[in-house]
Amino acid sequence: MITVELARQLVEAGVLWEPAPGDRFTIDQPNVVGEVFWISHLTIDVHTFHGQPLLGFNGTTEWALDSVTLDTALWLPREDQLRELLGDRLTALRREDDAWVVDVVDPETGHATFRDADVECAYGLALLSFT
After folding, report:
1. Residues 74, 33 contacting (CB under 8 angstroms)
2. Are 46 and 53 in contact (CB under 8 A)?
3. What is the dihedral of CA 21, 67, 27, 90, to 10 degrees?
4. Which of 45, 65, 103, 108 gives 20 to 30 Å between its CA and that of 96?
């Protein structure tokens, strides 16, 4: 899974999130960061309050949360979402020793390669290079 640090870097670089069922996120607060939540119509749903999207916790008993704003929630994009964001720039994914290697084409700089032990982090590093 993508690291919290890399997810923060993607947000800071301007990668936008439109919450949808199946998305993972953490709450970027010291006491909760690292706990992973999934948006689902059954437990966590996207609501709008005064024009601002909120992630509503429906019927959860283990957390004293009703809802959190999107600026508190930190999206943890999945592999398929990162691939989609890379789009046509992605040319290859391969395994080399203990690392995943992502090859991309940058119209300005040409070919670039990014590697990480986690495939989502490798994709995230590649995406970060375009922002």
Report:
1. yes
2. yes
3. 30
4. 108
β 52-57/90-96 pair status: unpaired
Please list the pLDDT of the chain residue by residue as tens digits (131 residues): 999 999 999 999 999 998 888 999 999 888 887 889 888 766 667 777 778 877 777 665 445 556 677 788 899 999 999 999 999 999 999 999 999 999 999 877 789 999 999 999 999 999 999 88
Q: How far apart are CA 34 and CA 7, in angstroms?
A: 12
Identify the bridge partners of residue 112 per DSSP, sorted by sequence position: 104
Q: What is the DSSP string of 79-97?
A: HHHHHHHHGGGEEEEEEET
Tokens at residue 15, please?
A: 């990668």
111 closest CA partner among 126, 95, 131, 96:
126
